[in-house]
TrEMBL record, chain A:
Entry keyword annotation includes Cell wall biogenesis/degradation: no
Classification via PANTHER family: BARRIER TO AUTOINTEGRATION FACTOR 2, BARRIER-TO-AUTOINTEGRATION FACTOR
SMART domains: BAF (SM01023)
Stated name of the protein: Barrier-to-autointegration factor
Entry's Gene Ontology molecular function annotations: DNA binding
One GO term of the biological process aspect: chromosome organization
Record's keyword annotation contains Cytoplasm: yes
Family to which the UniProt record says this protein belongs: Belongs to the BAF family.
Cellular component terms (Gene Ontology): condensed chromosome; cytoplasm; nuclear envelope
Organism: Coregonus suidteri
Gene3D superfamilies assigned to the protein according to its UniProt record, in alphabetical order: Barrier-to-autointegration factor, BAF
UniProtKB/TrEMBL annotation, chain B:
Organism listed in the record: Coregonus suidteri
Residue ranges annotated for the LEM domain, each copy included: 1-45
The protein's name in its UniProt record: LEM domain-containing protein
Database matches in InterPro entries: LEM/LEM-like_dom_sf (IPR011015), LEM_dom (IPR003887), LEM_domain (IPR051656)
Positions of region (Disordered): 79-144
Pfam family, one: LEM
Membrane spanning residue stretches: 159-180
Classification via Gene3D superfamilies: 1.10.720.40
Keyword vocabulary terms for this entry: Membrane, Transmembrane, Transmembrane helix
Biased composition (Basic and acidic residues): 86-110
């Protein structure tokens, strides 16, 4: 896997608090808007979904693709970001 | 396909378990995803029911896995079936003999030294036959006992994508054919011999 992005590093460095959903790695403006429309307006809501899916990679990727149309790379980035955040703070 | 919608959360959970799909709690936000997964699983189910042939190939693969203990088997499950068909017919002869050898080897412990030699013979036999069959555009059999475990593990899940194996096979076949034709041109053509 390629090295993590700046966004990823920033996100996993501290508790997410009230960060918006496009603070997540892999989630840019377009995907962020789609998620917000579905009610996932904050990063912690996506975190909630991630946890409800038992932190399973395949399920989360499928869900992300289904919900906002993320491609494989975006799915992977988001999953990796959340997983690492959970490892540190959960 | 809207019948999924009317099922209760509990029913969806039971269906997911029935198909062996890993899942979390069925809540509002996850429901849609699980409905989709169930639909895919149902479609897959229909497909596998109508196709009995995959079972046959599976049995074949199993058989090959068991019998080829002394070979580094190029005839793993992923090898193109086009190549496999005529080749595999000649192989069961080896495999039967090999299986017999293995049984003898495992049974007779005090006869360790003689058993060992006995097992070595197929090795020798292999190399000779492999060198003679080298001209054929088929994969070469290389004896190597220790490789078996790695092969078995690899055949269960594709580590090397199928298309790469096809490609390698074609390259090897092309190379051998090239060798063969270049050798033929060195001698006089057999068709001109009528004098």
């Amino acid at each position: 896997m390629s090295s993590t992005s700046q966004k990823h590093k920033e996100f996993v460095a501290e508790p997410m608090g009230e960060k918006p959903v496009n603070a997540l790695a892999g989630i840019g403006e377009v995907l962020g808007k789609r998620l917000e429309e579905k009610g996932f307006d904050k990063a912690y809501v996506v975190l909630g979904q991630f946890l409800v899916l038992k932190k399973d990679e395949e399920l989360f990727r499928d869900w992300l693709k289904d919900t906002c149309g993320a491609n494989v790379k975006q799915q992977g980035d988001c999953y990796g970001c959340l997983r690492e955040w959970c490892d540190s703070f959960l | 396909m809207t019948t999924m919608r009317i099922k209760s959360d509990q029913e969806i959970r039971e269906l997911l378990d029935g198909y062996g799909i890993k899942h979390g709690p069925v809540v509002e936000s996850t429901r849609h995803l699980y409905e989709k997964k169930l639909k895919e699983a149902m479609v897959k189910d229909k497909v596998t029911v109508t196709k009995p042939s995959p079972d046959r190939t599976f049995y074949r693969e199993e058989r090959e896995e068991v019998s080829y203990v002394n070979y580094r088997t190029p005839v793993r499950s992923e090898w193109p079936s086009g190549d496999g068909e005529p080749y595999m017919r000649s192989r069961p002869e080896y495999s039967d003999r090999d299986l017999v050898d293995e049984k003898l080897y495992s049974r007779s412990r005090p006869e360790y030294s003689s058993g060992r030699q006995y097992v070595d013979e197929p090795h020798v036999y292999n190399t000779q036959s492999s060198s003679s069959s080298y001209s054929k555009p088929t994969p070469v059999v290389k004896p190597g006992g220790g490789v078996v475990k790695a092969e078995r593990k690899a055949s269960s899940g594709r580590l090397i994508p199928l298309w790469i194996q096809f490609l390698v096979f074609l390259i090897v076949a092309g190379f051998l054919y090239f060798l063969f034709t270049s050798m033929e041109s060195a001698e006089s053509s057999p068709f001109n011999r009528i004098q």
